[in-house]
Amino acid sequence: MRKLIGLLIVITILSPLTMSGQTRRKTTSKSTRPTVSAASSAAESAGAMRVAEQIKVLTLFIYLLGGAAKGLEAMDDAARRNEASPALLDQAKQNKATFRTSIKSVREGLDKLEIDFRATPELQRYYIKLAGVAARAANAEDLAAANQFDKAGRNLLEVVNQLTDVLLEMRNR
């Protein structure tokens, strides 16, 4: 899991570097592409920044969850075998509540992002790719409520992938 997150971070960091190394021939022909207004460009730039921020929040959260999920599952196993102290059980209970609250906050941020993209005319064309990220986060929230933190983290990885696709599409227009 950590290797996968590390790989995603490396790919994210290196992708702008590989793009800047590409050269483009200069042509004198006039582009047939319509010009984008400054307001549209500013809205798209702000939208891309918000998507990127959500990716950063999610990757950090998944990294932290990945490290703790195995510990929480081990604590649950120890509790079933009556091998855990009450203090450790209380700590595990607090950690689970913290993760559930955090996933809820992530889902709420994704809900707001979807609403803003749907309501902003300059961003509506990207909404199609963005639609459903909040529902996936809600599914992760349900999995966390059922103490399935590993599955919740995997679900959030799908959200990161979908957000990355949206960001790439915004960048390529």
Describe the structure.
- It is a single chain.
- The protein is an all-alpha fold and 173 residues long.
- It has one domain.
- Helices cover 80% and strands 0% of the residues.
- The chain contains 6 helices and no strands.
- It has helices at residues 2-20, 38-80, 86-119, 124-130, 133-145, 149-171.
- Helix 5 packs antiparallel against helix 6 (149-171).
- It is elongated.
Based on Cα principal axes, name the global outline.
elongated
Q: How many strand elements?
A: 0
Whole-number count of domains: 1
Rg, please?
20 Å
Termini separation comes to 33 Å
Unreliably modeled segments? 1-20
Considering DSSP H and I runs of 4 or more, what fraction of the residues is helical? over 70%
Largest sheet geometry: none
Total helical segments: 6
Oligomer: single chain
Strand content: under 5%
Mean pLDDT: 82
Instruction: Look at the helices and sheets and give the structural class.
Output: mainly alpha
The arrangement of helices and strands along the chain is HHHHHH
